[in-house]
Amino acid sequence: MLEIVMILFTLYTLLKVYISVMQIGYIAQEKNKEAVLMSQDKYKEAGEYAIKKERVSLLSTLVDYLMFVWWVTYGFHWLASILQTDNSVIDAVVFLFGFFAIGYIVGLPFEIYQTFKLDKDYGFSNTTIKLYLIDQLKSIAMFIVFGGALFYALAWIVINVESWWLWGFGLLFTLAILINVIYPTIIAPIFNKFTPLEEGELKRDIENMMKSVGLKSDGVFVLDASKRDSRLNAYFGGLGNSKRVVLFDTLMEKLTNKELLAVLGHELGHFSHGDIWKNIAMMGVLLFVSLFLLGNLPTELFIDMRVGDSAGVEIAMMILLLPILSFVFTPIMSFISRHNEYAADEFGSKLGGKENLVSALIKLIEENKSFPKSHPLFTFFYYTHPPVIERLKELGYDTNEVNEMAKGLPDDGIFTFFNKK
345, 366, 367, 390: which one is catalytic? Predict the structure, then answer.
């Protein structure tokens, strides 16, 4: 049985590697062609960043594969043998803490390289070593407290309930909804400062826009994102009374008020179409199917791994195999998400103005150094948002027209063109 599982994980890894290699090769060719939606220098820079980022992801995939092989052939047996108490539930909790600690240590070099080398080289990361360490300590403390409680509850269910996967699904799905409720008001403020948007025309326009679609929120807030990263973003977070509008301070700095309203109009499209609940439902289906399949793994598999009937090993094995099932679901969920993005673009263009939305989209890809093209296979699997070129086409805007009109203008020619219209 172990051989079958290893073959499946190997095939999954090879497919991921193939998609990454195709993406890297595609962008390596495209970045040297005539620029689209950017100046030539920035277009090439965005392509180089995308390639380097994908190479890091590719290396991470290979390390994940080696770690999987190590866990199932030796690691689970070794960890279970050194972490034992007289309580089976505590055994499982301690085992899972050890499992996640090793995974954290192995993955840490990739995160450090991404944050302090790659993102700094391309002008994204503003994180200091002190801030990074504080963030890590906060995350670890939260994981110990809340993760420990979750591990204990899940291990108790595995040990004491016959159809434990069904009750485990109920626990995890309920927790996922709860996190969506408390994240904007309790969790996010642990890491960032949220300042109410100053009174003025922009705030009034945002509130009027929300009122027009029936959205009642906890308020409009500005997030101090720039202390860590220079990329632009905005979102609606929370469920029920905890819903709030969050604008990154980086976004406030780069976009005009009309462009901000168009971006928020797009996000209001997601609200009006119930996309948050659709995403939660899709997550619920994936979680249910995953727990049904992975919660009934044959005993022979654990015998092959030389581990006994341990709740900790069962849960850890599910976590190791979950990426395979997630990968199968990924194209479906990505397709649905891209469809929702097109619909939200249409909604936002009507609410905030098509030209303002188009201008904002172009600013977003240039400021975030998002290469505007992608290999079709990579898009099919991973793109939750359609490539910006396709989004502009759906909005009825010809990218060639944008490029032609921007010729002869300064480095920010496209922006100048839109702002003058």
Answer: 345
